[in-house]
Amino acid sequence: MDALELTSAANRNRSEIHALEKKSGVELTDCYQCGKCSAGCPVAFAMDKTPRQIIRLLQLGLLEEALASRTIWLCATCQTCVTRCPKEVDLPALMEAVRQAAKKKGIVAEKEINVFNDIFLQNVKAFGKSPEVILSALYNLRSGHLFQDIDSVPHLFLSGKAHVLPEKVKNTDAIKKIFAKCAEGGEHS
Amino acid sequence: MRYAYFPGCSLGSTGIEFGTSNKLVAQKLGLDLWEIPDWNCCGASAAHLTNHTLALALPARNLAIAEKEGLDIAVPCAACFARFKATAEAVKASEETKKKISSIIEMDYEAKGEVLSLLDVIGKKISVEKIKANVAKPLTGMKVVSYYGCLLVRPPKIAQSDDPENPMVMDDLMAALGAEPVDWGYKTECCGASHVVTKPMVGKQMLRDILYNAQANGAEAIATACPLCMLNLDMRQKQINAKWGTNFNIPIYYFTELMALAFGYSFKDVGVPRHFVPAEKLLQDVFSRTGARREGA
Ligand code: SF4
Ligand code: SF4
Fold this sequence. Notes:
The complex is a heterodimer of chains A (189) and B (297).
Chain A lengths: L5 H4 L4 H11 L11 H5 L10 H9 L3 H5 L3 H4 L5 H5 L6 H14 L6 H17 L4 H12 L9 H6 L13 H13 L5
Chain B lengths: L1 E4 L10 H14 L2 E4 L8 H7 L1 H17 L4 E3 L2 H16 L1 H11 L9 E3 H8 L2 H7 L8 E5 L8 H4 L9 H8 L3 E2 L13 H4 L1 H17 L4 E4 L2 H9 L1 H8 L7 E3 H8 L4 H4 L9 H10 L8
Parallel strand pairs in B: 1-2, 1-3, 3-4, 5-6, 5-7, 7-8
Helix pairs in contact in B: 1-14, 2-3, 3-4, 3-5, 4-5, 6-9
One iron/sulfur cluster binds next to α3 and α4 of chain A.
């Protein structure tokens, strides 16, 4: 990071960052940067920015850097940080809000995770349930990782854990309606 | 004791043993589980990650059906439980959310019933004496770590478990079966959920550390209450061994599998032969150690 003049920086991207605070219920000024969240985060080893740094970037108005980060996708929503944070900062909710904002702008630093989430929801929309075999097959296709976990497939079928035909909710209309109404709310990306 | 029961998607496929053993255990304990008719997927984390309203509406349809029946709800899967409970709390907290969700699902839902994980139903609503009284083949001396993962205990305001950092409810159940609960540092660590699919090297490292900690503390087995934790820990040991040169061969069991086995059901009844890591041998050893009659597949 280059040198930064703090007073003017903090005014950058003000309204967009405020919208993220509103959506996540997080007050960015609550965080006093103690780092406890990041010390306990089980995915921190794989992140490009620690969870604490994501908050710092937003405190400083550096929205672009937060949006481009892999961290917002890698957060596993495990809730360890918010459980331990002395200020109860709901980091996973913030990560979620930033991730949705990034997606809206077409900034997707972790393509596979994005593809997986999309396919999961498309399945629920179509079947009302989440057929795990179809989920992984479609994921392999769409992500280009065609033979991923192929070594486990025979056991999954032989042990009766996988079925080719998906189970379906009888009342699929009810589920489609729920999806449609939620999309109207304008939140669905 | 009657509860509405939401099996969730995993229990029909990768978590099939969980569903089977839940039913066996419930039967023995006089727990009447009424499966929510025509239930739908809770949306899991994908809905949560992409659309807040949808993440509440999908569980709410199931909750509303249970509410019509006037029942509290027992949810075995940790991820489904978290979504259900978060929905109930959100509806309780805001009149506006309640109205919005009811209009989306076109059913009344007022969050009257209590949402509980099946682990808490069995561990807290049923007396330990009753559980002990049903043990026909004790798991005497079986060294088992209880693995709770994330969503059964966190966030504490939603999960309302006995302790978000050091829960004991599963450990106590294991002790009631005659096993020897082993203390360890990873009981609430995250298994990485779907990271093992989307970011294999990240997910596998998280799993490796959990397995390592169990082994280092002398555990012979891991007990879990989550189908995703189970699948991850059970299916990936071979791949992890290949990657890091480790020699993990740790059987993973649903807590209800161990209960059903201790209650006298056979390996086949419970579904133990379906596991990736062979899980019968250890139990045969445990039963013969205790001089119990050997039975099984
Ligand atoms: S633990 Fe809380 S206060 Fe401390 S750095 Fe993390 S978010 Fe900020
Ligand atoms: S919720 Fe996300 S940021 Fe917080 S500890 Fe878990 S993975 Fe890390």
